[in-house]
Amino acid sequence: MIIVMKPGTHESDIHEVSKVLESLGLGIHISKGTERTIIGVIGDKRVLNDVPLELMPGVEKLVPIVESYKLAGKTFKPEPSVVDVKGVKIGGKELVMMAGPCAVESREQILEAAAAVKKSGAQFLRGGAFKPRTSPYAFQGLEEEGLKLLKEAQEATGLLLITEVTSEKAVEIADRYVDMFQIGARNVQNFQLLREIGRSKKPALLKRGPSTTIDEWLNAAEYIMSEGNYDVVLCERGIRTFETATRNTLDLSAVPVVKNNSHLPIIVDPSHAAGKTQYISSLSKAAIAAGADGLIIEVHPNPRCALSDAAQQLTPESFDNLCSDISKMADILGREFRYAR
Amino acid sequence: MIIVMKPGTHESDIHEVSKVLESLGLGIHISKGTERTIIGVIGDKRVLNDVPLELMPGVEKLVPIVESYKLAGKTFKPEPSVVDVKGVKIGGKELVMMAGPCAVESREQILEAAAAVKKSGAQFLRGGAFKPRTSPYAFQGLEEEGLKLLKEAQEATGLLLITEVTSEKAVEIADRYVDMFQIGARNVQNFQLLREIGRSKKPALLKRGPSTTIDEWLNAAEYIMSEGNYDVVLCERGIRTFETATRNTLDLSAVPVVKNNSHLPIIVDPSHAAGKTQYISSLSKAAIAAGADGLIIEVHPNPRCALSDAAQQLTPESFDNLCSDISKMADILGREFRYAR
Amino acid sequence: MIIVMKPGTHESDIHEVSKVLESLGLGIHISKGTERTIIGVIGDKRVLNDVPLELMPGVEKLVPIVESYKLAGKTFKPEPSVVDVKGVKIGGKELVMMAGPCAVESREQILEAAAAVKKSGAQFLRGGAFKPRTSPYAFQGLEEEGLKLLKEAQEATGLLLITEVTSEKAVEIADRYVDMFQIGARNVQNFQLLREIGRSKKPALLKRGPSTTIDEWLNAAEYIMSEGNYDVVLCERGIRTFETATRNTLDLSAVPVVKNNSHLPIIVDPSHAAGKTQYISSLSKAAIAAGADGLIIEVHPNPRCALSDAAQQLTPESFDNLCSDISKMADILGREFRYAR
Amino acid sequence: MIIVMKPGTHESDIHEVSKVLESLGLGIHISKGTERTIIGVIGDKRVLNDVPLELMPGVEKLVPIVESYKLAGKTFKPEPSVVDVKGVKIGGKELVMMAGPCAVESREQILEAAAAVKKSGAQFLRGGAFKPRTSPYAFQGLEEEGLKLLKEAQEATGLLLITEVTSEKAVEIADRYVDMFQIGARNVQNFQLLREIGRSKKPALLKRGPSTTIDEWLNAAEYIMSEGNYDVVLCERGIRTFETATRNTLDLSAVPVVKNNSHLPIIVDPSHAAGKTQYISSLSKAAIAAGADGLIIEVHPNPRCALSDAAQQLTPESFDNLCSDISKMADILGREFRYAR
User: Fold this and answer.
1) Per-residue pLDDT tens for D10-56?
2) If DSSP states are collapsed to H, E and C, what string results for chain D?
3) How far is CA C197 from CA A198, B321, C115, C194, C229, in A?
4) Which among A4, A240, A242 has CB closest to D240?
5) How near does any CA of chain B get to the CA of D66, in Å?
6) What's the CA gap between C309 and D50, in Å, rounded?
7) Residue D298 burial (10 A CB sphere; 0-12, 13-18, 19+)
């Protein structure tokens, strides 16, 4: 970290700041410029987390030099991590496809969806049992009943299961049914929930929040990892901007940026970003071309009858076409995807 | 709601959509334009919440005409609501001042802060016991120990107490100590928590999220109200934009917009918006001039020693000056504020 | 357009609005809902551009149903447009690559850049002669001298030329040298300049502004087209958001959205979006996978010596690798790109 | 500026960077941390504007310590500037009110508007003669004819005149009629135009662009000032965010931030920010309470007949009420405003 002092600061103020830093075991380097003096701080800056240096006399601002997360960062672990979920490896050569309906609605619906996505090559079945909805009057999910139906679909197809958890209680219940937890965009800074998942030791898919910077997102991953659970996969799903033509603005730059700053795998959710089925195929291919390790896509056997987010769920036919395209692209990009397994 | 059909849609598609609407007990009005046909929908549109009209053949888009919340809206209750917290009325003529440190840190600190803000005219003492922090390595709050210290400060000063709750468990604990719950910006769409607070029947201060539209914010209030708790006060605290000179961009337009669309009271938090003490006085005065019903401000007896958000906490002296200014402005604006009670 | 009347509006106000619409030759359709009356307007709404209906008594709001542009829209021309620049077709099966340095700096630099990008398969040489820079103290371009050097590079390689024009005077000068004008992001709503280019009849590349919605961008294209110049190509180059890890947030959803709403070709500029060379290859491939008709990329024979935007210019080697990758992807996507022509 | 080197950089790379800096006459300070080495740069960094240090081997990133503008900054001139326009002082104790219609439409309209705003206390008459409009089919202004009508209104009332200029030609024409130029939000980075106004030596009101940071805005002011015209007044008018309840999000924090970083006066335009008359009074009072030096407000004798931006123009009556309120607030805030002069 760099401490920038105000123009014309007294020597005594500089001395005062230096003393505090030294008392915390940090090294310092003072550099006097034509207008300002700056103080470089050397050592583990986490001891400074709760020290309000910016309020000391003469201090103009603090400039962080290294990122605020540690376990999630490339400096801590330079080689890419592979998260192994019962044999399916996320972050390796193979592309991972998670697919299924927005919400589990009925036995028939989830069994039909599972059979369809399995056939096109998906390794994971997704399906919401606990649904966070903007309006309290909208469908809120089948809860444990939905998880049982997911389990039945798993028995029929062998697909791995992933579902969103929205509270500590949901974690406890879902833990008995699914292979991977999903933390939704609205909960990316629900730190209580992140810690709970950290303690659970089950692999977690951490969606980016609509107004979360990549830096804050990696700090959210750090919450899970700091509890000892290192099996975290990131998921870009669009950020909130001024543009209203799509539900959110898919930030595909996040893929190379995350690959540059972190060792964690990253997949992309084009369904929530676009909000409209006609854009999902384009954005899915773009995500894979950008270097994503996989996709999570909403597929419904009969989207017109869906109880939530109908406009963004693909039909099994469209999903199958997309998987076929992805499979062809995978080769060119040095990846692998077994279409129609 | 208006349903816009695509150019050149078949009569049969229009007929199909009409049939669905009529089967749900809704009235329709068909209007054929030069390029498109539109269908006006008449009746309580909440029956459409889970019907994916946008996927029916021929449908181009749906255009909502009325807001999606009901209990929080002006149509439901045209006159302004006053939330009465043990005799202190929020939303009436009197301006309400909530003040205190970001986090409760020690007995001495909270007692000193309470005495100071009481003297300048505050009616509420604020102080965080459960602190949501971006980094897992930062100070996370004293939890129940902090609430006990708040209670002691209340006994010494008679101030009402408000604290942030971050989980169902925190609600349960805090319920025994404080007079009003605060839902923080990161939890504005933590629907589980909103429902829990709705069931608690204790008055709640609902902060706007950094990327929440005013419409979504009023829907979050609706979650609390739909459980039977109508004592909701809104709090604008800045939204996330591209500008980095301030921590967030305080959206003071939200004050007249909320007053126009809702009957709920609204106060403003300049501390989190600005992130720097030197801007808090300007923004506080601006908030009151814009029509806010009060302020919530961070005050620390010794900001330089604060364990969190040090840069945005006022000294008791600065806070006292601000209260004196607010008191003078109140008269001009037809409000009331008893400075130095 | 739909006119939504306030709840409880008098019949006479509805009558008044209807009269104004009918006097302008528009048809109307009145629909009375349970809470509000709405008036559907039928006919060419451009006659309403300067009529402030929203101020008439009883009017709550206006809801546009069709887009505000006409010549740029799919309704006006459903099949995709191909812009032919001296035989190179933008928007057809072939992908178009425009490449070259941010700014023309010297004879040696531009000749070397031209030879390199030609060799890898580019059809256009780009190079700034008039440079808009945030700070007045930064390098501002060689102006006409730069255009002469571009011309010389064209003679040596046969590449087509494109350059940014920043004023009417620049249009007049550049018209004598280049094959296509570029309108930069900062000038997307410089309507004087847009009209001037409309009158020039030379093909134009219209960059999206950092805070321009897709709708406003198509209206900017409409300015050029309404003067009779239909040879407009759009260029997505990133929008301004809260994220600071990249210079701008590349909005690749804009590619399928533009293809859905407009017949105009669209290419992508990953250099300005990313601002850092290490992300350009990923984003270029993503843009092509999303369906873009081409790319415009900054390439400098010696980026370390560049006089502007050094951090985002590729070396000829990196550019060559990228072209090779794009060429392989083109086949899979049903497009064509002749690498190393 | 601070240069942060990558972890594990070779001594020789550090040496190389140091050599370049020293060759440019800059001082350096090397500080070796536990993970990274950083190099502090001492001296006038403007010599580095065109040196791509970020591309040198081993360099991770550059961290600016001081702002990029000079003449517009507080370091250059610590005391506030007062811009004197023919005796009316902007930035002094007196609040300045600029008012008038969005566009000059007719002789009758502008004379009526001028008489009204003069009566309520305005010192400036505003009125657009060159109108930048999103759609090419909307009213574009009366051009020189409009300026002549403004002049006539000046003769009748003695008000000073301000009008927006959108091109070098408009500057040339308007220069013969008005007392102050306005640079609109869309032209804040039209550098050609800024330089032209810098050369004109006439006072200029520089609006903030919808996606311009405060730092870029002060750099735009620097363009004007670097040509020798120091009479620049800034005008906050709202930025583009995700919120759609108002046309733009008025960023009132910009007022204290500008006062902190620059010596230039700043006024506020609530009309374009709100886009709706019902919010203008609240926001105007908030702007003054935040410390603005004045306001620019759209007033139309008959808003319902306005040819542009009808929804945001106040009636003379509403404007008069607002001026009365502002006058009362002025005293409390230590300012002055002569209502109904």
Assistant:
1) 888 888 888 888 888 887 878 777 677 888 787 766 667 667 777 77
2) CEEEECCCCCHHHHHHHHHHHHHCCCEEEEEECCCCEEEEEECCHHHHCCCCHHHCCCEEEEECCCCCCCCCECCCCCCCCCEEECCEEECCCECEEEEECCECCCHHHHHHHHHHHHHHCCCEEECECCCCCCCCCCCCCCCHHHHHHHHHHHHHHCCEEEEECCCHHHHHHHCCCCCEEEECHHHCCCHHHHHHHHHHCCCEEEECCCCCCHHHHHHHHHHHHCCCCCCEEEEECCECCCCCCCCCECCCCHHHHHHHHECCCEEECHHHHHCCHHHHHHHHHHHHHHCCCEEEEEECCCHHHCCCCHHHCECHHHHHHHHHHHHHHHHHCCCECCCCC
3) 58, 58, 29, 5, 8
4) A242
5) 14
6) 9
7) buried
Answer whether D289 touches B (CB < 8 Å): yes
| Domain spans of chain B, in order of start | 2-63, 83-332
Among candidates C31, C34, C66 on the partner chain, residue whose Cβ is nearest the Cβ of B36: C66
CATH number of this structure's domain B2-63, picked from the four choices 3.40.50.2000, 3.30.70.1140, 3.40.50.720, 3.40.50.150: 3.30.70.1140
* DSSP letter for each residue of C208-247: PPTT--HHHHHHHHHHHHTTT---EEEEE--B--S--SSS
Structure tokens of A265? 């795998």
Chain A nearest C-alpha distance from B337 (Å)? 30
pLDDT digits (tens, 9 = 90+) for C218-236: 999 999 999 999 999 999 9
C158 touches chain B (CB under 8 A): no
Domain D83-332 in this protein, CATH class = alpha beta
Q: Does B47 touch chain C (CB under 8 A)?
A: no
Question: What pLDDT does residue B46 have?
Answer: 65
**Structure confidence at residue D49 (pLDDT):** 65
pLDDT for residue B49: 65
**ipTM score of complex:** 0.89
Write down the pLDDT at residue B233.
98
Residue B172 gets the label, from left (phi > 0), alpha (psi -120 to 50) or beta, of: alpha
Rounded distance between C-alpha atoms, residue A210 and residue A187, angstroms: 10
Q: What is the mean pLDDT of chain C?
A: 91
**CA separation for the pair A173, C105 (Å, rounded):** 65
Quickly tell me which residue has 């004598």 as its tokens. Answer: C176
Gap between the Cα atoms of A142 and A105, Å rounded? 7
pLDDT-based confidence at residue A235 (cuts at 50, 70, 90):
very high
Of A253, A278, A288, the CB nearest to C279: A253
**For residues A257 and C245, what is the distance between their CA atoms, to the nearest angstrom?**
7
Are the Cβ atoms of B134 and A219 closer than 8 angstroms?
yes
Whether the CB-CB separation of A150 and B175 falls below 8 Å is answered with no
How far away is chain D from the Cα of B64, in angstroms, using its nearest Cα?
A: 14
The answer to whether A256 touches C283, Cβ cutoff 8 Å, is yes
pTM above 0.95, yes or no: no
Residue C108 falls in which region: left (phi positive, over 0), alpha (psi -120 to 50) or beta: alpha
**Cβ contact (<8 Å) for C211 and D211?**
yes
